[in-house]
Every structure is written in C-alpha cells, then in structure tokens.
Amino acid sequence: MTQKTAILTGAARGIGLATAKLFLDNQWQVAMIDRDEAELHKAAGELPGTLPVVCDVSDPASVDAMITGVLERFGRIDALVNNAGVAYFKPLEETDFACWRETMSTNLDGIFLCSKSALPALKVSQGAIVNIASISGLRASTLRVAYGTSKAAVIHLTKQFAIELGDYGIRVNCVSPGPVKTKLAAAVHTPEIIKAYYDGIPLNRSATEQEIAEAIYFLCSEKAAFITGQMIAVDGGFDASGIGLPALRAYRQ
Question: For the packed helices 145-165 and 97-104, what is the interaxial angle rounded to 10 degrees?
Fold first, then answer.
C-alpha cells in the first residue's frame, strides 16, 4: 500500500486513456473509471494491473461505491483526475433542458461528487485533484451554450476547491485543452473547420492526447508540489491569440 494510486474518470478512451498509460509508465497504480462498460473493459484489458470500475459520475451512490472499491483494492488515493465529460454542440434554440442538465450533471456535478467522496483519502495522502475543463470555458463560441458554461464553472470550482483544501495539503488544479487530435475530432470536423482552428492557434496545430496527459501528470506529481488553484490552458496559444493572426502569417511570408 505504499505505491501511489490515481483515479481517472472518463478513462476508456481519448485523453483519459492516454493519461492512464502515463501514470502506469511512472509506476502508479491506476483505477480506470467510465460508464461505457464495454469500452472500459476493452481498454483496461490491454493495461495489466489497472482496476476498471464502471461508474456514472453524476450519480452519488455510484460514485461512493466506486471510491470504496478503489480503496478496498489499493488502500489509498493520491490523485484524482476528473476527466469524464459529455459534449453536445447545439444552438441555444435546440438545446433543451434535458441536454442542459445532462451536460451539467456529468461535467460539473461529477467533479463535485468524485472530489467530495475521495476527500477523506486525499487528506491522508495530501494528494492532488486535477479537473479537466476546456478552452470553451475560457472563450465563448457557437453551439456551446451548455458545454462551454459547464467548463467555465469547472475552472471556478477548481479555485474554490484549492482555497478550501489547501489547509489539508491537497492541491487542486485544472487543465483546459484546446483542439486535440482525436478520432472523434477527425470524424466531426471538416478540413475547413480544422483550418479555421489552426488559423487561430499560434502553434498552428492540434494537441495530441499525450501532450494533454503530460500536463495532467505533471500537476499530480511532486514536481508541482507548490502549484494549486491554477488553470493551465494546453492549447497552443489559442486563448492568447486574437484576430489578425492569419493576416500576420501571410505578411511574414
């Protein structure tokens, strides 16, 4: 029970799965959490030693049972990565209340529930919480009235947690990814949309899942021992840029 343990929600694919692999590479014990049972067990089956737990992070009883199961298996919790989330991209007039509530209950309530349930164990370990927000929580965009608002709330909730939990030695930070090169993004974004994104990103590309995972792992590690209450945008400079970047690039050429 001396080996550090990380809980990662939304771990069946994408950023969550990449982060799980990185923790394993650094000799952490890993509990992989997801509500997609088939994908979760498929992913965990390829990562020996991980603990897959099917859990809906928006359900308090499911979350409490998940935390209990992790502690029974590993005996400790040193890091909680709140990565589980849903995204519906719809205009306001097509965003019904059910869509709004599902987005908030997963993206925001899930972080509250998982963090609160894991808190007693995190006090013992003086561990870390990393919440995954989004560039959409920093800058408004079309079709993101529910998603963007939920992620903006995640950023502020991170600060609230950091202030309240600092006395226990628990660090709480947030990672806000910009566009990430995933299978889903490739499927839903046309070449025109991808180019429009790149036009606004100083580094002129999407992040890889591994690059997001590296930031998450860093914030959970001892190398970030005096960092708390912070939001790191891993976005290639997207949040820092304004209008005119494409014209500036053309001028340079």
Answer: 30
pLDDT category, 47, cuts 50, 70, 90? very high
Got the DSSP string for the chain?
A: --S-EEEEES-SSHHHHHHHHHHHHTT-EEEEEES-HHHHHHHHHTSTT-EEEE--TT-HHHHHHHHHHHHHHHS---EEEE-------B-GGG--HHHHHHHHIIIIIHHHHHHHHHHHHHHHHT-EEEEE--GGGTS--TTBHHHHHHHHHHHHHHHHHHHHHGGGT-EEEEEEE-SB--HHHHHH--HHHHHHHHHT-TT-SPBPHHHHHHHHHHHHSGGGTT--S-EEEESTTTTT--TTHHHHHHHH-
Q: Can you read off the two tokens belonging to residue 152? A: 């903006």
In contact, 20 and 50? CB cutoff 8 Å? yes
d(CA 140, CA 137): 7
d(CA 167, CA 253): 53
Catalytic residue among 88, 147, 168, 251: 147
Give tens-digit pLDDT for 142-173: 888 999 999 999 999 999 999 999 999 999 99
Question: Whole-prediction pTM value?
Answer: 0.94
Q: How many CB atoms lie within 10 A of CB 242?
A: 6
To the query of whether residue 198 is one of the catalytic residues in this protein, the response is no
